[in-house]
Amino acid sequence: MSFTLHPRLAAGTFELGELLGCRVLLKNNAIFPWLIIVPEVEEGIEDLHQLDPNTYGDVAIAIRLVSQFVAEHFHPEKLNVACIGNQVRQMHIHIVGRSTGDPAWPGVVWSFEGKKEYRPSEIESIRTAWEMYVDR
């Protein structure tokens, strides 16, 4: 099976690596600690219940590990985890760290229009922290 990342996901993120058959991406918006997991599954599989049991287990473990990374690295008060896909149908899971001080609180980040792009040094710092996290 060949896998191609949806152009919209590729355009708005930086790849941190691969984990259990999933791409792990950093959303290019430094306002929120926001990672995206993209399982490398066949086109047409859009929702978690469509995964075979083994792949579902791998994706669930990836969600847990990425959630733990966001919690430990960024220290948010709350994590929002969602597999929505209304605009981009390729299966992807958002893991967003939220805190009462963030500018979208208590609303949703999906419709928040503010954006602050990461500086290259910030991206490298997060990528290094991610690599150290998965290698431990």
TrEMBL record:
InterPro entries (alphabetical): HIT-like (IPR011146), HIT-like_sf (IPR036265), HIT_Hint (IPR026026)
Pfam families associated with the record: HIT (PF01230)
Segments forming domain HIT: 35-105
Protein name: HIT family protein
Organism expressing this protein natively: Luteolibacter arcticus
